[in-house]
Specification:
- This protein is mostly helical.
- The protein has one domain.
- The chain has helices at residues 3-24, 31-51, 67-71.
- Helix 1 packs antiparallel against helix 2 (31-51).
- The two termini are 25 Å apart.
Length: 72
């Protein structure tokens, strides 16, 4: 796995965690919200397996923010 792919998967994992957080904060959870949380849990588990062991590149704060990151 390349460093670039690891970075992309790490960002995906963070996006999944944020999505799960939003879905869990629903004031009136319904079947759709619970389904989203379950789906995100499964996807997060898959990404965790891919990223295990932890990323090999040094994790540093980024000074450039992409449009996608701004939306997150």
């Amino acid at each position: 796995m390349t460093d670039d792919l690891e970075r992309q998967l790490t960002r995906l994992y963070v996006a999944l965690a944020m999505t799960r957080n939003v879905a869990q904060r629903a004031k009136h959870p319904d079947d759709a919200s619970r389904s989203v949380v379950t789906l995100v849990d499964v996807a997060s588990g898959i990404v965790e397996e891919i990223l295990s062991p932890p990323p090999s590149y040094p994790i540093e704060a980024s000074t450039s923010i992409t449009e996608i990151e701004m939306l997150m």
